[in-house]
From TrEMBL, chain B:
UniProt subcellular location: Cell membrane
Species: Azoarcus taiwanensis
Keyword hit for Membrane: yes
Protein name as it appears in the record: Thiosulfate reductase
Pfam families in the cross-refs: COX4_pro (PF03626)
Amino acid sequence: MHAPTNIAVGLDPTPAGHPAWRIPGNKGIWAGIVCVFVEFAVLFTVYFVARAHFPEAFEAGHSRLSLAAGTTITLLLLTSSLFIAMSVVAIRKGARRHSIAWLSGGLVLALGYPLVKYLEFRWNLDHGIRGDSGIFFTVYYYLTLTHLVHGFWGILGIVWVLARNIVGAYGPGEYSGLEALASYWHVTDMIWLIIFSLIYVLV
Amino acid sequence: MSPLHPNTAYSPLFLAWTALVMLTLASIAAGRTFNDEAWLPLVIAGMVWLKASLVARYFIEAHDAPPFIRWAVRLFVGFVPFCLLLTAFWGDDIARWTSL
């Protein structure tokens, strides 16, 4: 298996003479991902400060949310992330058709995220859960809506990368665009795993 | 697997996904069963760190990345569990320090 020709590799070789690192995707996506890290670090800080001030509201609030919706979204995002990682592995092996199939599966599952979130918000409104229903729900809405926006960017990215893959833009020697999208989607998945634990699980 | 020879096997990804699903289900069960226990945040913090680390290691392949990216991912993965423990055990102090 030959290494991709376009990946960025480290300038500081190991004693054996091999490059020490490579950038998953490209520099541009990692500039964006680090910004996302900072953005959510600020949002999580607000969550923890609010939780420290109003522990009772957080203990009572989470039991009113739909755990089924949160769990479904978690499984959709985890499996979508798996399929997109499989797509990257397939293109590395030169199996472009498999890569397209995995990516298509990842897109279908990713589209389930906004759908379930829409149904969850409708369920919330039917049960009187709105943004002004208390501090916990204010935090819940800003965290989940902000994440949903990032989910939309990711879905648009999957569509774009899928189209490029179909027209043959990627192969074993060049797949940085696909890997960049995969990195972004995995980070989106990682952030959801954190939100799920803080909002739906932790009492 | 090395930086110039990234993963080309499906099985590590599937195993990581299986572990992530099991950890998610275990965290739900822990939250429901031990919701009054003072040590629950410690367990949830550990699970958050483990799940995020699995995504970083097997899906993002952050261990092959340059030091800046590796450390950015490590810091972010460790940030929430750290804050969770601070809030769980020193919540009153944090509320006092962050009062206007």
